[in-house]
């Protein structure tokens, strides 16, 4: 097929979609939120047009308007992102993972979640609800620190070394149990890589522990983390049950991801 000329490429673009992409790009660069004035300046359209665009995107949950009037990316984008594999393969990570998360919660009575990297944070892209009396609830769309918590430590441990080194300079202490010393974190990440799972001992939130394990793709790259948060004080035999179930769930998702990748060849 002949290459499309740059002139033809420009001719067959839709200006309003171009501006919408500009809006998404701006909000991606400003996770703290952008004002309508900043959006107007970025897309070079009238305030009325920008307001109508943002109102439409907000109605479909592609952007979110805060009580203060700033705009951020909306949760609907999570659904879209979860259906795109990290290597842009055709397998559907969310569709693969959700039944396994549901089964994990059925077995343990605890809520579970699937988390991926999102910039310098982690992002919950799928969750299952527990039915136990003390089950903790997770929901898609939550953004959490990468260094404090079982899932975050999994994703950090298997990140490129340059990314690990950069993030070691920002280990904010969220609780008295947060690992904020770089040397201790290096030891913790090495332990996680060796044993293949991680535990949060109240590092992100007082009174909340968690177990997490990695999900891998066909190239053995870690693409997500499966985790179960639970209240502190649980009997260690119960913790071991949760640990085994989280690991087996992550392994089951990994097998299905690899199988789906092979089917696409």
Topology:
Blueprint: H1 6-11, H2 15-29, H3 36-43, H4 47-59, E1 63-65, E2 71-73, H5 76-82, H6 93-108, E3 112-118, E4 121-128, E5 143-145, H7 150-157, H8 161-167, H9 182-195, E6 198-201, E7 208-216, E8 222-231, H10 236-263
Antiparallel strand pairs: 1-2, 3-4, 3-8, 4-5, 6-7, 7-8
Helix pairs in contact: 6-10, 7-9
What does this structure look like?
By secondary structure, the protein is of the alpha+beta class. The chain has 2 domains: 6-74, Arc Repressor Mutant, subunit A; 80-263, Beta-Lactamase, CATH 3.30.450. The protein contains 10 helices and 8 strands. The chain has helices at residues 6-11, 15-29, 36-43, 47-59, 76-82, 93-108, 150-157, 161-167, 182-195, 236-263; strands at residues 63-65, 71-73, 112-118, 121-128, 143-145, 198-201, 208-216, 222-231. Strand 7 and strand 8 form a beta hairpin. Helix 6 (93-108) runs antiparallel to helix 10 and helix 7 packs across helix 9 (182-195).
Which descriptors would you attach to this protein?
single chain, 265 residues, alpha+beta, Arc Repressor Mutant, subunit A, Beta-Lactamase, 2 domains, 18% strand, globular
Name of the top-level CATH class of the largest domain: Alpha Beta
Secondary structure: helix percent? 40-55%
Cross-sheet strand order for the largest sheet: 5-4-3-8-7-6
Write down the secondary-structure element order: HHHHEEHHEEEHHHEEEH
Mind describing the biggest β-sheet?
Answer: 6 strands, antiparallel
Compute the number of structural domains: 2
Beta-strand percentage? 15-25%
Helix vs. strand class: alpha+beta
- pLDDT averaged over residues: 86
CATH fold description of the largest domain: Beta-Lactamase
N-end to C-end Cα span: 23 Å
- Going by CATH, the homologous superfamily of the largest domain would be GAF domain
Low-confidence stretches: 1-6
């Amino acid at each position: 097929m002949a290459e499309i000329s740059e002139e033809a490429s420009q001719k067959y673009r839709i200006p309003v979609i171009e501006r919408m992409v500009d809006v998404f790009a701006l909000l991606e660069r400003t996770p703290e939120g952008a004002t309508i004035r900043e959006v107007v300046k970025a897309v070079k359209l009238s305030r009325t047009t920008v307001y109508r665009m943002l109102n439409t995107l907000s109605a479909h949950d592609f952007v979110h308007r805060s009580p203060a009037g700033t705009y951020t990316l909306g949760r609907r984008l999570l659904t879209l992102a979860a259906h795109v594999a990290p290597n842009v393969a055709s397998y559907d990570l969310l569709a693969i993972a959700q039944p396994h998360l549901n089964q994990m919660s059925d077995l343990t009575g605890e809520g579970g979640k699937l988390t991926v990297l999102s910039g310098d944070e982690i992002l919950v892209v799928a969750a299952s609800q527990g039915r136990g009396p003390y089950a903790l609830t997770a929901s898609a769309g939550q953004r959490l620190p990468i260094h404090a918590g079982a899932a975050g430590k999994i994703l950090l441990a298997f990140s490129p070394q340059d990314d690990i080194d950069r993030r070691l300079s920002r280990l904010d202490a969220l609780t008295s149990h947060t690992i904020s010393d770089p040397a201790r974190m290096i030891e913790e990440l090495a332990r996680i890589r060796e044993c293949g799972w991680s535990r949060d001992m109240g590092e992100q939130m007082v009174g909340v522990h968690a177990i997490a394990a990695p999900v891998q793709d066909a190239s053995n790259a870690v693409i997500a983390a499966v985790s179960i948060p639970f209240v502190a004080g649980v009997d260690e035999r119960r913790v071991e049950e949760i640990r085994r179930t989280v690991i087996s769930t992550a392994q089951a998702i990994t097998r299905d991801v690899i199988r789906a990748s092979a089917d696409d060849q």
